[in-house]
Design a protein that fits this description.
The N and C termini lie far apart (83 Å). It is built from no helices and 23 strands. By secondary structure, the chain is an all-beta fold. A hairpin with a 3-residue loop joins strand 1 and strand 2. Helices cover 0% and strands 45% of the residues. It folds into 3 domains: 68 residues, no CATH class; 60 residues; 122 residues, Adenovirus Type 5 Fiber Protein (Receptor Binding Domain).
Length: 289
């Protein structure tokens, strides 16, 4: 094979190999060679160490680079103060074993970092510092952990799979009826952590209506787990009650969503006969769902 060296072609017509590179220094088996059309390769000690293929892909430790930079057989180390910088949004890091459906880390506008399994987002970090789990509000604001609106229950006893705060409207009825019953004010708040719900409420009537029977409180934000346990709830009877000897009462769960009210002392439950048009009371209940 002849070697051509002129002002038009430069150095040409010598391809070489990893063992005998076409361009080298005094070390005979270290240099540059041309293994195939439109491909440049580099060898060290007679072994290929890097190449640029016909697609412009760079392979270090591999002769078949699958991307713009394909490193095999070792790690990439960045010195202190340096990092990886992208020129735009929607860039990503992919797992090497599956560039289509594997795990991805992707950056979007507003400082958002998204974690995906294929096309399904499993978690994101927002620009404000919130952690959003799969199914949670994508822009919750503030700092914290955002769970999905509908719980995705875990079978692992040591996994926290839900957290929720909110409000609810306590409902008073007598044996299930509330004809003509109206409220001067009523409020309820709750916190749900995993399976445990703590609900606060206060109620003031403006008219107790015409329904009769045992007094009940309903409208709780979540139904209790079955079989229903007898959760004991302290209630403070502030004003507007008749034939009640104590300002405290207790409530126990009658079914998955209703508590009946019983005086703290004495027997039997409170009923419509113990309520007036201005009955005012409040309490707290903690139960499992």
């Amino acid at each position: 094979m002849s070697l051509i060296l002129d002002g038009t072609n430069g150095l040409s017509d010598v391809d070489g190999s990893a063992a005998t590179p076409a361009i080298r220094g005094s070390d005979a088996n270290t240099g540059m060679f041309f293994p195939t059309a439109d491909t440049i390769a580099f060898s060290e000690g007679g072994v290929e160490s890097m190449r640029i293929d016909s697609a412009g892909n760079v392979g270090i430790g591999t002769s078949s680079p699958a991307s713009r930079l394909n490193v095999a057989g070792g790690n990439i180390t960045l010195s202190a103060g340096n990092g990886i910088t992208w020129s735009g949004d929607q860039n990503r890091i992919m797992t090497p074993e599956d560039n289509v459906s594997g795990a991805l880390i992707r950056w979007a506008g507003g400082g958002i970092c998204r974690f995906l399994n294929g096309s399904t987002e499993t978690m994101r970090l927002t620009g404000s510092g919130a952690v959003v789990l799969q199914g949670g509000a994508t822009n919750p604001g503030g700092i914290g952990i955002t769970f999905p609106a509908t719980q995705s229950a875990s079978s692992d006893a040591n996994t926290l799979d839900d957290y929720e705060e909110g409000t609810w409207n306590p409902d008073v009825n007598f044996a299930g009826g509330s004809t003509g019953l109206t409220y001067a004010q009523r409020q309820g708040q709750y916190v749900k952590i995993g399976r445990q719900v703590t609900a606060w409420f206060f109620v003031q009537l403006s008219n107790k209506g015409s329904s009769v029977g045992l007094a009940r409180i309903g409208g709780f934000p979540f139904n209790a787990a079955t079989p229903v346990a007898e959760y004991i709830v302290p209630i403070y009877l502030y004003s507007g009650f008749t034939s009640v000897t104590s300002s405290t009462a207790i409530a126990y769960m009658d079914n998955a969503s209703v508590f009946e009210i019983r005086p703290a002392s004495g027997t039997g439950n409170l009923s419509d006969a113990n309520f007036t048009n201005t009955s005012f009371f409040w309490g707290t209940v903690t139960y499992q769902v």
